[in-house]
Design brief:
heterodimer, A: 202 residues, mainly alpha, two-stranded antiparallel ribbon, 68% helix, 2% strand, B: 213 residues
């Protein structure tokens, strides 16, 4: 039961994006299309899982005073791995994610989970926490990308769904930087309303 | 659009070759501060932008610290890249090396400030360690490397980017001060309205794209 909680925490109750508002940079920059969102979600999930596992396995060996630099080196290693694999097998995706791949190193979600969870919990719990948080991050990116891609290009995952007439004159601002900020504001407000409803019902 | 702008600046730098003309420097300065603002159009450094913009004083301190750290980062990452990683064919280690340089640099700045200017250290205290995980800092190191800037242009790019970050942070702090006195709908209080405010600022900065530097 508690293992299930470790796993499912990241989906909603402690969703890294909508609850704790961490990891905003790749979230806002790459939620322009589903393709980018899924690519970024997968890359971040991979790094999150393995850094959680490595840090939790070595939590009794790493000296407390220099733990943050140690975590960063672990994370940077996994990020370099993702960078190279993606450049070799998915060059188009690698190009469109661009600078945001090396920037996974400074994604606060990953360092945050290392510090808040992996260094005090067992390897199995940390693995599940990494998978759950990764899924939570990917779901959040997918939600935002769905809104932005449909409004901004009239398509979803590259498939035109609102018709050619809309695709010729879309609400372009949704996929430009201001659209990311404004739509994120409205999504967060929607979450606040849902929470209030729940509280009132309880 | 962000990517096409980045690409354009990279191509511009490559076609210029070794020498750096005044026009190129001006382009980087105006581009970094206004057109490609690190926070509002490249989405770098959003966490401190949202976290440290509650008061004008701390926004000013954070802005100044980031300008300093980013200039130092650009210089030291350039040196290590050219003198160590390229000659030894270790280019694939760049991410690890850059983040370690930044972490060491921030620690170093912290120690120097503590020794020589305890007042400034106390003022910046909490915000200094946060700079390590500011993606604008690692971002500028990677951008400079990818664009192939020389040392001078790299530092100009870093300082311009950091000034753009500081400008966005300070403007946001001023606006949030005003927001305290406004009557916001309940659901919008806190983070949602801050994001929308950032969006409105971003629209204003989008207007600079027409400058075409």
């Amino acid at each position: 039961m508690s293992l299930w909680k470790d796993f499912s925490n990241g989906f909603y109750t402690e969703n890294p994006i909508f609850r704790i508002t961490l990891g905003m940079c790749p979230f806002l920059a790459l939620s322009t299309s589903m393709e980018n969102a899924v690519g970024m979600g997968a890359a971040a999930t991979f790094v999150l899982i393995w850094s959680n596992v490595a840090i939790s396995a070595l939590r009794n060996v790493i000296p407390d005073k220099i733990r943050i630099p140690c975590y960063i080196v672990f994370i940077a290693t996994f990020v370099s791995l993702v960078d190279m694999v993606m450049a070799a097998y998915a060059p188009a995706l690698h190009k469109s994610l661009g600078i945001y791949i090396p920037l996974i190193v400074v994604n606060c979600i990953i360092l945050g989970r290392a510090e808040a969870f992996a260094n005090k919990n067992t390897v199995l719990s940390s693995l599940l926490d990494g998978i759950g948080m990764g899924i939570g991050f990917t779901l959040a990116m997918a939600l935002m990308a769905t809104i932005r891609e449909i409004l901004g290009s009239g398509s979803w995952y590259g498939f035109n769904i609102l018709g050619q007439a809309y695709a010729n004159q879309p609400i372009l601002i949704a996929i430009l930087p201001p659209g990311a900020f404004v739509l994120m504001g409205f999504v967060l407000a929607a979450f606040a309303v849902i929470d209030r409803r729940k509280e009132r019902a309880a | 659009m962000t990517h096409s702008l980045l690409l354009a600046s990279a191509v511009g730098a490559a076609s210029q070759g070794g020498g750096s003309s005044l026009a190129q420097v001006m382009g980087l300065v105006i581009g970094g501060i206004l057109i490609n603002n690190y926070v509002l159009s490249r989405f770098l450094g959003i966490c401190p932008f949202l976290g440290v913009s509650k008061q004008l004083d701390s926004a000013l301190g954070m802005g100044a610290a980031v300008v300093f750290v980013m200039a130092m980062t650009a210089a030291s990452c350039y040196a290590l890249w050219q003198l160590l990683l390229v000659p030894l064919h270790l280019e694939y280690l760049s991410t690890i090396v850059f983040i370690l340089i930044i972490a060491a640099l921030v620690q170093f700045v912290e120690m120097v400030l503590l020794k020589f200017s305890p007042a400034l250290y106390r003022a910046l205290g909490i915000y200094l360690p946060l700079i390590t995980t500011n993606c604008a800092v690692l971002g500028v190191a990677v951008l400079n490397k990818d664009a192939g800037y020389n040392l001078g242009l790299g530092i100009v790019n870093a300082v311009a980017g950091a000034l753009g970050f500081a400008l966005a942070l300070i403007l946001m702090a001023g606006l949030r001060g005003r927001l305290e006195f406004s009557n916001t709908p309940d659901a919008m209080k806190g983070k949602p309205i801050t994001f929308i405010l950032a969006g409105v600022m971003s629209i204003a900065f989008l207007g600079f794209a027409g400058l075409g530097v």
